[in-house]
Amino acid sequence: MKKHIVLLPGDGIGKEVIESAKDVLSAIAEEFNHLFSFETHEIGGAAIDLYGTPLPETTVNACKQADAVLLGAVGGPKWDLNPSHLRPERGLLGIRKALDLYANLRPIKGFKNLLHASPLKEEVISGSDLLIVRELTGGIYFGSPSERRDNGQVVVDTLVYTRREIERIVDKAFKAAQGRRGRLTSVDKANVLESSKLWREIVEEKKAQYPDVAVEYVLVDAAAMKLITNPTHFDVIVTENMFGDILSDEASVLTGSLGMLPSASINESGVGLYEPVHGSAPDIAGKGVANPVAMILSAALMLRYSFGLDDEAKMIEDGVQSALDAGFHTADLRVENGRQVGTTEMTKLIVDFI
Amino acid sequence: MKKHIVLLPGDGIGKEVIESAKDVLSAIAEEFNHLFSFETHEIGGAAIDLYGTPLPETTVNACKQADAVLLGAVGGPKWDLNPSHLRPERGLLGIRKALDLYANLRPIKGFKNLLHASPLKEEVISGSDLLIVRELTGGIYFGSPSERRDNGQVVVDTLVYTRREIERIVDKAFKAAQGRRGRLTSVDKANVLESSKLWREIVEEKKAQYPDVAVEYVLVDAAAMKLITNPTHFDVIVTENMFGDILSDEASVLTGSLGMLPSASINESGVGLYEPVHGSAPDIAGKGVANPVAMILSAALMLRYSFGLDDEAKMIEDGVQSALDAGFHTADLRVENGRQVGTTEMTKLIVDFI
Ligand SMILES: CC(C)[C@H](C(=O)O)[C@@H](O)C(=O)O
Ligand SMILES: CC(C)[C@H](C(=O)O)[C@@H](O)C(=O)O
């Protein structure tokens, strides 16, 4: 298989972990006889420094032509006081919109050897395995008006969804549930928001098309509770952009190993952007100690979702598990009797496995 | 002191626990020579059944004339399929707006003897003591337009704040922080929302007036994580309506005893509505097993915030602690070697203490 991949290292540890993903993918290409070509572009703070914009045209164009995109992370204190349009996050929001990456998929599953690091009691978190499907290109993130009025005395943001935007993300979630344990939790605030009422209606309409999926509705506030008290309750959660932002970050700390969590953002033609859930971690950037696993597992998701290469994805995941089983880990994790290694050593362990 | 209190039992266990609060307040009145008069009105599902509306005029008028309001809980499966305007929650939203109860205060502090029931590890939750100050009458809950457009193809909700609405809640939170450990966390999504940017600007402006309070800004997604990984980090959290809804519910399960948590909703003249954080629990309603403590502690908050009766509030809180210390608890809690009692017994224990 011949695939062209755009790498967007971004800022901070993004620059380090993207190299790890590239090494692992090169090993996979060799092992399975694929041809993966790579092209690197700037986004976020790095792009602001070089081109005066967090999302240069050349980056957008390259991504549009690629078969998939890997992103490291964006942001850092250097750009924190910049005006809105010159903030690194704008690059991220911009590329999501430009590629129409409407479906953000975040699988959250603890690693057995790492569950001890969870803030939750082991009996609460053990066995949890959930997928959050977040709508990523609509809602209050992109609605207009979003502005001051009356001389700055009033401020307005707008949550907008089209029926079609809701339908496609709901379909995506139903399909994901079919491929898992067949349970879908739709999260909304239907007792207050009109948009949530439409969301619920659409899930109700779609239900008939997926008779093998059991559907439930949970209000966003109740979901925020239940994720903590009963995380094993969930299989697939589907929700709108802002609720998904909050709940997926909440869920990401439950297993105690944020540095291991990948994410995928996909459009209708299957092209996707894959990135770790963690941020650019400016405090440890450049020190060679960053955990590359979330980025490497994001590359595995790319192989599976965008290229349909299941065996290859599985091999990467097995490689990660085997490194953990052997007791290796990076500085962000505490493992009893473990052997702490840096970014390149951790990567090499996984490459060697392949 | 002479005070007139409106009781709104509402639905489910609300009807039971409101009696407990009344009994405890009567004991306090006797002990401290106050005159508390009570008047009961309907709200929520009970009001729908009797008057065809979740918030009758007579209820609103009575509350407007009262010195304070105690609310049990609203809602239940019986009304779940009703159209929006005939849902019990509308009564709650309506009374908040009618009394301009802009400040929702939720103190969250674990009881030592109950922390073992927390989903979090004891070393994570132990020592946490935080207050969430949620804006309650603005934002996307009340903004218009909130409607379908283009034949139902598009749906819109609107997040609106006036500068004055933000200023008053921020002031409230700064003052609360002064009376506590002097730390304020303002939660927003300033990297995406215009309303959050104004919110942050106003906190920055106000800061100078409260030099004894240390301020930090945390994005809502990061706050959802930090509440779990490091709950002891927080003293006072201030945030807008929807974020406050999600985060305060998230926080309410951290200590493992939701049935113990009170809340206060206050307006500018100090009149307040006090209610437990838990809901109407239709599954156990009418069985005499509901935990009355959250309702009783809500009455204590009323004494403190609306009537300035600190000693009296303290006595109720001590009464609750002493019942717990003696090993008594309701069915919602598991206490090793504890003695399980019903709603009336638990209430009596606290009344006897007074
Ligand atoms: C950086 C920010 C705009 C972004 C979001 O809120 O979508 C991030 O929090 C995320 O979840 O990917
Ligand atoms: C019932 C509902 C409208 C309400 C809210 O969201 O405000 C409730 O969740 C609460 O937090 O008091």
Keywords:
two-stranded antiparallel ribbon, Isopropylmalate Dehydrogenase, alpha/beta, binds 3-isopropylmalic acid, 10-stranded mixed β-sheet, 2 domains
CATH superfamily of the largest domain in chain A: Isopropylmalate Dehydrogenase
* Tally of strands of chain A: 14
Distance between the termini of chain A: 18 Å
Largest interface: A-B, 56 and 56 residues
Largest sheet of chain A: 10 strands, mixed
Helix content of chain A: 40-55%
Order of helices and strands of chain A: EHEHHEHEHEEEHEHEHEHEEHHEEH
> What would CATH call the class of the largest domain in chain A?
Alpha Beta
Low-pLDDT segments, ≥5 res of chain A: none
CATH fold name of the largest domain in chain A, please? Isopropylmalate Dehydrogenase
Number of domains of chain A: 2
Shape of chain A: globular
- Average pLDDT of chain A, to the nearest integer? 96
Would you give an account of this structure?
The structure is a homodimer of 354-residue chains. Chain A is of the alpha/beta class and 354 residues long. Chain A has two domains: 1-102 and 279-354, Isopropylmalate Dehydrogenase (3-Layer(aba) Sandwich); 119-254, Isopropylmalate Dehydrogenase. Chain A is 40% helix and 23% strand. Chain A has twelve helices and 14 strands. The first copy, chain A, has helices spanning 14-32, 45-51, 57-65, 88-98, 122-125, 163-178, 194-207, 220-229, 241-252, 293-305, 310-325, 343-353; strands at residues 2-10, 35-40, 68-73, 103-109, 129-135, 143-149, 154-162, 183-188, 214-219, 236-239, 262-266, 272-276, 328-329, 339-340. In chain A, the strands form three sheets. A ten-stranded mixed β-sheet of chain A has the order 2-1-3-12-11-4-5-10-8-9, sandwiched between helices. A two-stranded antiparallel sheet of chain A has the order 6-7. The radius of gyration of chain A is 20 Å and the shape is globular. The mean pLDDT of chain A is 96. At the A-B interface, strand 6, strand 7, helix 7, helix 8 and helix 9 of A face strand 6, strand 7, helix 7, helix 8 and helix 9 of B. Strand 7 (154-162) of chain A pairs antiparallel with strand 7 (154-162) of chain B, so a sheet runs across the interface. One 3-isopropylmalic acid sits between chains A (89, 92-93, 245) and B (191-192, 221). Chains A, B: This is 3-isopropylmalate dehydrogenase. Chains A, B: The record marks 141, 189 as: Important for catalysis. Chains A, B: GO terms for molecular function: 3-isopropylmalate dehydrogenase activity; magnesium ion binding; NAD binding. Chains A, B: Its EC number is 1.1.1.85. Chains A, B: Belongs to the isocitrate and isopropylmalate dehydrogenases family. LeuB type 1 subfamily.
